[in-house]
Amino acid sequence: MDIDRRSIWYDHAFNKTYGGFFPSDRKTPHKVSLQPHDSVREDMLHLICRSISDRSVDGALAELGVFQGETAKLLHNYFPKRRFFLIDTFDGFHETDVQHESREMGVQTTVDHFSETSESRVLRTINPSTDNLEIIKGYFPDSITPSLSESRFALVHLDADLYNPTKAGLAFFYPRLNPGGILVIHDFNAWPGVRKAVLEYCESEKLIPLPMPDKSGSCVIIKPIG
Ligand SMILES: C[S@@+](CC[C@H](N)C(=O)[O-])C[C@H]1O[C@@H](n2cnc3c(N)ncnc32)[C@H](O)[C@@H]1O
User: Fold this and answer.
1) Which residues are CB-neighbours of 40 under 8 A, at least 6 positions away?
2) Do the domain assignments include residue 26?
3) Residue 129: inside a domain, yes or no?
4) CB 23 within 8 Å of CB 50
5) Is residue 194 situated within a structural domain?
6) Residue nearest to atom 21 of ligand 1 (CA)
7) Domain presence at residue 24
8) Domain that holds residue 109
9) 159-179, pLDDT tens digit by residue?
């Protein structure tokens, strides 16, 4: 009995009750356009949202590395009633991080990578149905606000590509995850700095990053209960 509509064992009754890859009260997803060949990531994020919803994990949402807001659109549409922090320079990578990446990882990138965005563009993409979005613009972690520090989280998506912000994001968000909350780190199997930051943090905190089979190899960390 499968969840995927394309499977010959697709179980309509089960999916009608539990929503399949989508919220149980909807027949179809909100349209997002993550890269078209990355439907695994889209499905993964829907199932992770559903797990948080089914287990009634309290808390806000956050995304570090928003770019044009496609993943943020998916997350907001799943949880429109939750506070959602959107954290980005909205101007691309920072010079300090680019230099660090080149020096320590041997990865050459530039400050204009991902600069073709803005807060208004992100808001147009998400088209929020509530006023629960809070944009935090600037270099993370310098951009951390009191409202972000005081929040507790159910779901955090780290997608900043580079070592420095990923390291800072793990140190900031993991302690603020509620029990049963989930951290998704994109590019664990794509950008070397992300992988290094995750492995270092997990080793120091005795955590296990669970690898996912999406295009860029996300990984997932769940905060234990109790
Ligand atoms: C891959 S893009 C995010 C894509 C987005 N999550 C999506 O799924 O469409 C990476 C983003 O991380 C942001 N970023 C990288 N380092 C950052 C830092 N130190 N502070 C804030 N934003 C940063 C970049 O500006 C860029 O928009």
Assistant:
1) 212, 213, 214, 215
2) no
3) yes
4) yes
5) yes
6) 88
7) no
8) 38-222
9) 999 999 999 999 999 999 999
